[in-house]
Design a protein that fits this description.
The chain has 270 residues and is α+β, with helices and mostly antiparallel strands. 20% of the residues lie in helices and 25% in strands. Strands 1-2-3-4-5-6-7-8-9 form a nine-stranded mixed β-barrel.
């Protein structure tokens, strides 16, 4: 049979073809794959490397300003004979100390496309790193010990800028003021045995404490069958103890008030 020169394609087929073309052109470009940090992680140590504690006071090699030295000396006077630390009194460690894993407790990472949540087992301290365009307006951000963290991808590296920090005179090895900003870089690699490793780098910039950015480096490895255990208590006692010792210093007395004194004052008010 000869082809009919007057044959036609039904209109509905033209409409369907056009719809398919429009649907294909409307699809957004697929987002590139990024490393997934999800999991429970513990500190990674190279062979022969000692254990990180996160305690012990500021690093000896910090490039301190005169104001930074003054603030550290002033804070040290508040610690008393037992060298009190906030973690012992149920206070969140804050950034960068929680990322240095004092006490060697694990971290849990929970990752979505627009957010990385990091939970430290001690006090179940939680950070939320907002990735990409989903950000809280600056005027709505509330300063905290962990600050506000905004992240973006540079290839396979998650780059995070943390601002809106409270004064961190008690920040373990790296004290800072409320002027500090911290830039962090997270990447995922494999060691010689094929084990996944998170590399963590941070640079702390603080004109009050430091003459140049201070670097922090850590590595984390998977904690096999690991879980984060609930671990939480109130932190008001720590601040009341510091207030009590500050008053002692102002009155020319030794800063030796103890937590039992805080409890007594609370009981007297009840």
């Amino acid at each position: 049979m000869k082809n009919n020169p007057f044959s036609y394609t039904p209109v509905w087929k033209h409409v369907l073809a056009a719809a398919v073309v429009l649907a294909c052109t409307a699809l957004p470009a697929a987002e590139p794959d990024h490393p997934d940090f999800t999991g429970v992680w513990t500190a990674h140590r190279e062979p022969g490397q000692g254990r990180f504690s996160g305690f012990g006071g500021p690093r000896a090699d910090l490039p301190l300003t005169e104001e930074g030295r003054r603030r550290i000396e002033e804070y040290n006077k508040l610690l008393g004979p037992e060298r009190a630390n906030p973690g012992a009194y149920c206070v969140d460690y804050g950034v960068p100390t929680m990322m240095e894993m004092p006490g060697f407790y694990p971290l849990e990472f929970i990752q979505k496309s627009d957010q990385l949540t990091i939970i430290y087992e001690v006090e179940n301290e939680t950070r939320r790193i907002y990735i990409g365009d989903r950000q809280l307006p600056p005027e709505s951000r509330v300063p905290s010990r962990d600050g506000y963290s905004a992240g973006h991808w540079e290839g396979d590296v998650l780059v995070v800028k943390t601002t809106d920090l409270l004064d961190g005179a008690d920040q373990g090895a790296h004290p800072h003021s409320d002027e500090a900003t911290i830039e962090e870089r997270f990447s995922l690699i494999q060691d010689a045995n094929g084990k996944k490793i998170i590399t963590y780098e941070a640079a702390i910039t603080d004109p009050s404490y430091y003459t140049e950015p201070v670097k922090v480096q850590r590595k984390y490895e998977p904690l096999e069958d690991g879980f984060i255990i609930p671990y939480r208590c109130p932190d008001e006692f720590w601040y009341e103890l510091l207030d009590m010792r500050s008053k002692q210093l102002q009155e020319g007395q030794p800063a030796d008030a103890r937590m039992s004194d805080v409890y007594k004052v609370r009981e007297a008010k009840e």
